[in-house]
C-alpha cells in the first residue's frame, strides 16, 4: 500500500515530462497506474472479504513513535476500489476531453496527485496521516478547480472551495487530536475498539463538533453546500471524479469510519439526521431551479450526500447497509452523468438543458450511457440504483420517532432524482425533436467509452448483486457497525410496501419532470432568500476579512518609526516587569547606602558634567552646540573608563568620539535648522515612556549588582594571557588572540559600513526616480 | 559610585530614548549615539567596577594578581564601541543623502514604503 501511494506521487510529478515525451499518449501511463493499483487491491480483496483487516506499518521516525500506518478493511477497500477504478476511466476520459490542451501534463499532475491523496486518505491507518491526506485532497481540488486560471470565476471558485474545505480541515485537525487524546491513541485500529471510552470522555462533545465541521464542509452539507456548485468551474473530468464520486464523499467516509468510535450517541444521531435531511431537501429543491447540466448534477449530488449523511446518522444496520449500497450506486450513475454532460458540452458547446434535444442520433453511445445511468438514478429495475433506493426506503421506514420525516426526505429527493434522470437520460437524447442540436465535434471513443463502462457496471451490479458486490458491501457495513452482519442483496424483494413506494416515486418524478418548466419559472422568486444564504454570507465575510486585515496591517505597520520603537520598548518593559514582579528578587538598598560614602571627589565632578550636559542638549536649538555637548558626554565616559581600570576602552572612546564629532561637523553643516516637529501632547507620552524605560534599566542594574558575579573567565584570562598569549595587556590579548575571529568579524562589519557609506556618497539620483 | 552609576545609566537611557522618539532625523542620530553610550556603560557596570587596577599584567609577573579589572567586559566594550561607530557614521551619511534627495529631515515624510495602500 505504501508503494502504491509512493508510486502515485512519483508519477504525478513526472506527468508534465511524460506529456512532453508522449504527447497525446500520455494518458496510457497515467491510466495504467490506477489500473494496476486497482488490480493490486483486488488481489487483497479475498483476504478482506474473508473478514481480515489488513494493516501495514511503514517505519518513519521510530524513535519518535511516528509511523505511517495503513489499514485496509471493507470500508477502505470499497472506497479504494472506487477511487482507482473510477480513476482509471477518468484518466482515459481526460486524455480525450482535454486533447491538445497545452497544459494537459499539468492537469494529469494535479489529477494523479489528487487520486493518490484520496487513496492515502481512505487507506490511512492513523488519524494524523488521514488528516494530512485530507488536506492534500483539498489542495489538489483547489488546483483542479482553478485549472482554467485565466477565468476570474475559476479562480474565485477555487479559492472558495479551498477556504471552505480548508476551514473545515483545520477544525478536523483539532477534532482528531481531541479524539486521539480521548482515546489515548492515534492509531485507527486501536481507536476503533475504544469507542465506549471516547464517547464517555469529557472531550467528546468538542471533538464531535469539530469533526462534523470538517466532514460537513468537505461533503458540502448545509450550510457549507455552496462551494460545490461553484466548483463546477473545473473541467468536467474533475467534476465527475472529485466533486461527485470521490472527494466530496471523503466527509461521508470520515463519518462512516468514525461511526464505531464516535457514533451511537444522541448528539451524533440527531445532528447528522438534521443536517443531512436539510441538505437532502435543499439540494433536491435547488436542482429543479437550474438549466445548466452540471449545476443540476451538482445540486443532486449535494442532495445525495445529504442522504448518505442522514443514513449514517440513523446508524441502524439496515441504514448503514443502505448507505454503502446507495453510495456505490450514486458514484456509478452520477459519475456517468457528469461524463455524459462533459461529452455533450464538448460536442455541442452548450450545457443548457433547454437547448439540448435529440442527441441520440449523433451521439449514440453517450446516449446509451445516459439512458442506463438515468434508469439507475431513477431507481428502475434491474439497475443497482433500484436496490439502493429500496434499501434507503426500508431503512427510513424502520420503527423510530422520526420515521415519516426521514421517509419524506428520502422520498422527496427520490422524486427529484427521477425527474432529473428523465430530463438528462431521456430528454436530452431520446425525446423526439424537430431539429436535433447540431454537433461541433463528433463523439469520440475515448469520451464515450468511460461513461458506457460505468453505466453498464451499474447494470451488472444490479443483475448480479451476489457476485463480489454483496461481500464487499457487507464488510464495509460491518466496518461501521463493528459487528458481523448477515447481509443479502437481492434485486427482487417481492411485492411489498417499499416496491409500491418506489413505483409512486417514479410516477411522481415523471410529473415533476413534466412540470419542470413551470418550476423553473419560480426560480426568480427565491432571489430574496439567496441574498440571505450562506453563499452571500461567505462573500461578505471574505470582504470583511480582507478589509479587517488591511485595517490591522495599517494600524500595526503604519510607517512611523517612533511607534515601532515605542511598541518594542513597551513590550520590553512589560516583559521585564512581569518577570520581576512575580517571584523576582526584591531590591535591598538600605544596607548599601554606606557605599555612597566611598564616593570620590573627581567622580562627582564627572557626574556634574554629564547631567547638566544632557539638560543642555535638550535645551539647545543649534546643531553645532548639540554636537559639542555630545562630545562632552562622550569624553566624560572615557574618563569613567580610565577611573575604573579600562585604559584601552577609554582610549578607543576618546578616538571614536573625536571622529564622530569631526564627521558630524563635516557633513551636517548643510542641513536645515533644528525644529521641534512633534506635538506637545505626543511628547508627554514619549517622556513618560522614556522615563519608565530608564527607571527599569536602573532597577535591573541595581538588582543584578545585589548578587556576586560568578565568572571564571576573569581568572582564566588573568592566568593565561601571558602564558598562552604572550601579552601583558589582557584585553588586547583577548581581542587579537583568544577571540581573534570575533575581531575579524568586527572588522568585516566596519568594512561593510564603509562600503555602504561610499555607495551612498557616490549615489546619484536618476531622472524620474521617485523619492 | 556603585550606587550612583545605575541612576546615571537610567538617565542616559531615558534621554536617548526620548531623542530617538523624535521626528527629526538629526535627533534620532543623537539619540542613537547616546543609546550606544548608555549601553556601553551598562555593560561595564554590570561587569563590576574595580578601582585602581587595570587588566594588565605587571612587568615582572607571569599571571595577573588581584585587584585587576575584569578584562571580558572591556573586550566586549571595545568591540561595541567600534561597531557603534560604524553605525553612527553610516547614519550620519544617510541623513545627508536623505536631505539631499528628499529635501526633508522629518521621519514622517519617509514612511510611504512601509504603508499598505488602503484601496487598490
TrEMBL record, chain A:
Database matches in NCBIfam families: PRK12647.1 (NF009287)
Entry protein name: Multisubunit sodium/proton antiporter, MrpA subunit
Residue ranges occupied by any MrpA C-terminal/MbhE domain in the UniProt entry: 683-762
Record-level GO BP terms: monoatomic ion transport
Main location, first listed in the record: membrane
Keywords: Antiport, Cell membrane, Ion transport, Membrane, Transmembrane, Transmembrane helix, Transport
Pfam families (UniProt xref): MbhD, MbhE, Proton_antipo_M, Proton_antipo_N
GO cellular component terms listed in the entry, alphabetical order: plasma membrane
NADH:quinone oxidoreductase/Mrp antiporter transmembrane domain boundaries: 124-408
MrpA C-terminal/MbhD domain location: 608-672
Membrane topology: Multi-pass membrane protein
Subcellular location: Cell membrane; Membrane
Domain NADH-Ubiquinone oxidoreductase (complex I) chain 5 N-terminal: 63-108
Residues passing through the membrane, by range: 30-49, 70-95, 107-134, 161-181, 201-217, 268-288, 295-317, 323-344, 365-384, 404-426, 447-469, 489-513, 561-581, 601-618, 625-644, 650-674, 686-704, 743-761
GO molecular function, one term: antiporter activity
UniProtKB/TrEMBL annotation, chain B:
Subcellular location(s) of the protein: Cell membrane
Record's GO cellular component terms: plasma membrane
Entry keyword Cytoplasm: no
Keywords for the protein's UniProt record, in alphabetical order: Cell membrane, Membrane, Transmembrane, Transmembrane helix
One Pfam family this sequence matches: Oxidored_q2
Membrane-topology descriptor: Multi-pass membrane protein
Main location: membrane
Membrane spanning residue stretches: 6-21, 28-46, 75-95
Membership in a protein family: Belongs to the CPA3 antiporters (TC 2.A.63) subunit C family.
Protein name: Multisubunit sodium/proton antiporter, MrpC subunit
Organism this protein belongs to: Pontibacter lucknowensis
Amino acid at each position: 500500500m505504501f508503494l502504491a501511494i509512493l508510486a502515485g506521487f512519483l508519477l504525478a510529478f513526472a506527468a508534465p515530462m511524460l506529456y512532453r515525451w508522449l504527447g497525446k499518449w500520455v494518458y496510457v501511463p497515467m491510466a495504467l497506474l490506477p489500473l494496476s493499483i486497482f488490480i493490486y487491491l483486488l488481489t487483497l480483496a479475498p483476504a478482506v472479504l474473508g473478514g481480515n483487516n489488513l494493516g501495514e506499518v511503514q517505519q518513519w521516525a521510530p524513535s519518535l513513535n511516528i509511523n505511517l500506518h495503513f489499514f485496509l478493511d471493507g470500508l477502505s477497500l470499497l472506497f479504494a476500489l472506487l477511487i482507482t477504478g473510477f480513476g482509471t476511466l477518468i484518466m482515459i476520459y481526460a486524455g480525450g476531453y482535454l486533447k491538445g490542451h497545452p497544459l494537459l501534463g499539468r492537469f494529469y499532475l494535479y489529477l494523479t496527485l489528487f487520486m493518490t491523496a484520496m487513496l492515502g486518505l481512505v487507506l490511512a491507518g492513523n488519524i494524523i496521516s488521514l488528516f494530512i491526506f485530507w488536506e492534500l485532497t483539498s489542495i489538489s481540488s483547489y488546483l483542479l478547480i482553478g485549472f482554467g486560471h485565466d477565468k476570474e470565476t475559476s479562480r474565485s471558485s477555487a479559492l472558495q472551495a479551498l477556504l471552505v474545505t480548508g476551514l473545515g480541515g483545520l477544525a478536523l485537525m483539532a477534532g482528531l487530536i481531541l479524539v486521539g487524546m480521548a482515546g489515548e491513541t492515534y492509531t485507527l485500529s486501536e481507536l476503533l475498539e475504544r469507542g465506549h471510552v471516547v464517547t464517555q470522555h469529557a472531550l467528546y462533545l468538542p471533538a464531535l463538533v469539530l469533526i462534523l465541521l470538517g466532514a460537513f464542509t468537505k461533503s458540502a452539507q448545509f450550510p457549507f453546500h455552496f462551494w460545490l456548485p461553484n466548483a463546477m468551474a473545473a473541467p468536467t473530468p474533475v467534476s465527475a471524479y472529485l466533486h461527485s464520486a470521490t472527494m466530496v464523499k471523503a466527509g461521508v467516509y470520515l463519518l462512516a469510519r468514525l461511526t464505531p468510535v464516535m457514533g451511537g450517541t444522541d448528539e451524533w444521531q440527531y445532528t447528522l439526521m438534521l443536517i443531512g435531511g436539510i441538505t437532502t431537501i435543499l439540494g433536491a429543491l435547488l436542482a429543479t431551479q437550474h438549466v445548466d447540466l452540471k449545476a443540476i448534477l451538482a445540486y443532486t449530488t449535494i442532495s445525495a450526500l445529504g442522504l448518505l449523511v442522514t443514513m449514517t446518522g440513523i446508524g441502524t444496520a439496515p441504514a448503514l447497509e443502505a448507505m454503502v449500497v446507495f453510495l456505490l450506486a450514486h458514484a456509478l450513475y452520477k459519475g456517468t452523468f457528469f461524463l455524459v454532460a462533459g461529452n455533450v458540452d464538448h460536442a455541442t458547446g452548450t450545457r443548457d438543458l433547454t437547448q439540448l434535444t435529440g442527441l441520440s442520433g449523433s451521439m449514440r453511445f453517450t446516449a446509451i450511457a445516459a439512458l442506463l445511468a438515468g434508469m439507475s438514478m431513477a431507481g428502475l429495475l434491474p439497475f443497482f440504483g433500484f436496490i439502493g433506493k429500496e434499501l434507503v426506503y426500508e431503512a427510513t421506514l424502520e420503527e423510530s420517532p422520526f420515521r415519516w420525516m426521514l421517509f419524506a426526505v428520502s422520498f422527496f429527493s427520490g422524486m427529484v432524482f427521477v425527474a432529473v434522470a428523465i430530463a438528462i437520460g431521456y430528454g436530452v437524447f431520446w425525446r423526439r425533436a424537430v431539429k436535433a442540436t447540431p454537433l461541433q465535434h463528433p463523439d469520440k471513443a475515448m469520451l464515450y467509452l468511460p461513461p458506457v463502462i460505468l453505466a453498464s457496471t451499474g447494470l451488472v451490479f444490479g443483475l448480479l448483486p451476489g457476485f463480489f458486490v454483496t461481500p464487499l458491501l457487507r464488510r464495509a457495513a460491518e466496518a461501521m457497525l463493528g459487528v458481523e452482519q448477515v447481509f443479502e442483496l437481492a434485486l427482487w424483494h417481492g411485492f411489498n410496501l417499499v416496491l409500491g413506494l418506489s413505483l409512486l416515486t417514479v410516477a411522481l418524478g415523471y410529473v415533476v419532470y413534466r412540470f419542470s418548466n413551470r418550476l423553473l419559472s419560480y426560480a426568480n422568486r427565491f432571489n430574496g432568500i439567496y441574498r440571505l444564504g450562506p453563499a452571500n454570507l461567505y462573500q461578505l465575510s471574505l470582504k470583511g476579512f480582507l478589509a479587517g486585515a488591511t485595517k490591522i496591517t495599517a494600524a500595526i505597520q503604519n510607517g512611523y518609526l517612533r511607534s515601532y520603537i515605542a511598541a518594542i520598548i513597551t513590550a520590553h518593559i512589560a516583559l521585564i516587569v512581569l518577570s520581576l514582579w512575580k517571584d523576582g528578587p526584591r531590591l535591598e538598598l538600605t544596607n548599601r547606602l554606606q557605599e555612597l560614602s566611598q564616593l570620590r571627589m573627581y567622580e562627582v565632578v564627572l557626574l556634574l558634567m554629564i547631567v547638566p550636559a544632557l539638560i543642555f542638549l535638550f535645551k539647545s536649538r543649534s546643531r553645532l552646540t548639540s554636537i559639542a555637548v555630545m562630545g562632552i558626554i562622550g569624553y566624560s565616559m572615557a574618563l569613567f573608563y580610565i577611573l575604573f581600570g579600562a585604559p584601552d576602552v577609554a582610549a578607543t572612546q576618546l578616538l571614536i568620539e573625536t571622529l564622530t564629532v569631526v564627521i558630524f561637523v563635516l557633513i551636517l553643516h548643510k542641513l536645515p535648522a533644528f525644529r521641534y516637529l512633534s506635538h506637545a501632547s505626543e511628547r508627554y507620552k514619549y517622556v513618560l515612556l522614556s522615563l519608565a524605560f530608564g527607571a527599569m534599566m536602573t532597577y535591573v542594574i541595581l538588582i543584578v549588582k545585589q548578587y556576586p558575579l560568578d565568572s571564571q573567565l576573569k581568572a582564566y584570562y588573568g592566568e593565561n594571557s601571558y602564558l598562552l598569549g604572550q601579552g601583558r595587556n589582557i584585553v588586547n590579548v583577548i581581542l587579537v588572540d583568544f577571540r581573534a575571529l570575533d575581531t575579524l568579524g568586527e572588522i568585516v562589519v566596519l568594512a561593510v559600513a564603509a562600503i555602504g557609506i561610499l555607495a551612498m556618497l557616490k549615489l546619484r539620483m536618476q531622472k524620474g526616480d521617485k523619492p | 559610585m556603585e550606587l550612583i552609576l545605575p541612576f546615571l545609566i537610567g538617565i542616559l537611557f531615558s534621554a536617548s530614548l526620548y531623542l530617538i522618539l523624535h521626528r527629526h532625523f538629526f535627533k534620532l542620530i543623537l539619540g542613537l549615539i547616546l543609546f550606544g553610550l548608555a549601553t556601553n556603560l551598562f555593560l561595564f557596570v554590570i561587569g563590576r567596577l574595580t578601582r585602581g587596577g587595570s587588566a594588565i599584567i605587571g612587568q615582572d609577573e607571569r599571571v595577573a594578581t588581584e585587584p585587576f579589572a575584569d578584562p571580558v567586559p572591556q573586550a566586549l566594550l571595545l568591540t561595541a564601541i567600534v561597531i557603534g561607530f560604524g553605525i553612527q557614521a553610516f547614519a550620519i551619511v544617510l541623513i545627508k543623502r536623505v536631505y539631499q534627495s528628499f529635501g526633508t529631515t522629518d521621519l514622517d515624510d519617509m514612511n510611504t514604503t512601509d504603508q499598505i495602500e488602503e484601496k487598490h
